[in-house]
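Lab meeting, item 3. Inverse folding demo.
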C-alpha cells in the first residue's frame, strides 16, 4: 500500500498522503494537506493550507482550493482549465458524494449532484 506523487509537484510540509492516494503533476499544495485513502489531486491544481480530503475524493485538473477547505468522501470536482481554473473557496465544505461542476464560494457548504449550497 503506498501513495504516489508523480512529477513537478511542490508539496509543503506536513502533508499526509494515505494509502492509494495520488498527486499527479504540476500541483502546488500548501501546509498540512491530508489526502485520505484513494483520493487524488490531478494536474495543475493549486491547494491551500490545511486542506482535507476524505477518502476517495477525485479532484480533477486545474482546480484551485482555498485554505481550510474540506472535501467529503467520494466527492468529484470537475476540471477547470488553465485559462479558467475551477475555484473552491477558503473554508468551503463539499459534502460526501457531491459532484462539483462550478465554483464554490468561500465558507459555503455544498451537497448533491450537481452540487448546490446547503444550510448556509
Ligand atoms: C454536508 C455535511 C457537512 C452536512 O452535515 P450536517 O449539517 O451535520 O447535515 P445532517 O447530517 O444534519 O443532514 C441534514 C440533511 O442533509 C442531508 N445530507 C447531509 N449530507 C448530505 C450529503 N453529503 N449529500 C446529500 N444530502 C446530505 C441529510 O440527509 C439531511 O436531510 P433531511 O433534512 O432531509 O433529513 C455532511 O453530511 C457531510 O457530507 N460530511 C462529510 C462526511 C465525510 O465525508 N466524512 C468522511 C470521514 S473520513
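The presenter then showed the designed sequence:
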Amino acid at each position: 500500500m503506498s501513495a504516489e506523487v508523480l512529477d513537478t509537484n511542490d508539496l509543503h510540509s506536513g502533508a499526509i498522503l494515505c494509502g492509494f492516494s495520488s498527486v499527479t503533476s504540476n500541483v502546488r499544495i500548501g501546509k498540512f494537506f491530508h489526502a485520505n485513502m484513494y483520493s487524488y489531486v490531478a494536474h495543475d491544481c493549486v491547494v491551500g493550507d490545511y486542506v482535507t480530503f476524505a477518502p476517495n475524493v477525485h479532484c480533477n485538473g486545474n482546480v484551485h482550493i482555498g485554505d481550510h477547505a474540506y472535501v467529503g468522501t467520494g466527492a468529484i470536482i470537475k476540471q477547470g482549465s488553465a485559462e479558467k481554473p475551477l475555484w473552491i473557496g477558503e473554508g468551503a465544505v463539499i459534502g460526501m458524494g457531491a459532484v462539483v461542476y462550478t465554483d464554490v464560494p468561500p465558507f459555503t457548504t455544498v451537497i448533491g449532484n450537481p452540487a448546490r449550497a446547503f444550510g448556509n
